[in-house]
Design brief:
four-stranded antiparallel sheet; rod-shaped; alpha+beta; 4 strands; single chain
Length: 118
């Protein structure tokens, strides 16, 4: 609800018999303005059933060991994702993306973790 919708709703409530007073409408309007972000976050957290993405981190490393010597010192992107609801234990997933010479990028590995960093 944006501010114009709030004003229209409060105006209708003040004109309604047995509704709220204009002072009460002013207090509600002031409360809504000052707590709009908190109200929205609370409603979003209550309406979400599944886990959401809580964090993302990435870095680029140089491969130092490999089965094939041609892959040593090649760049590897390491991506770590954190999933969960607020106030709950976080599940983490990490994966590496590497580029091999003269080949398209490919997923090198997938690692699933729980509660501990990958």
């Amino acid at each position: 609800m944006d501010f114009n919708q709030l004003e229209a709703f409060l105006t209708a409530q003040t004109k309604k018999q047995g509704g709220i007073t204009s002072d009460q409408a002013a207090v509600i309007s002031k409360f809504w303005k000052s707590h709009k972000t908190k109200i929205r976050e609370s409603l979003m957290n209550q309406s979400r059933w599944d886990n959401g993405l809580r964090g993302l981190s990435w870095r680029v490393d140089a491969k130092s060991q490999s089965r094939h010597s041609s892959q040593i010192h090649t760049p590897v992107a390491i991506i770590e994702l954190e999933f969960g609801k607020s106030g709950q234990t976080v599940a983490e997933a990490g994966f590496e993306l590497g580029i091999l010479p003269s080949q398209p990028p490919k997923l090198l590995g997938l690692q699933a973790c729980t509660t501990a960093p990958c």
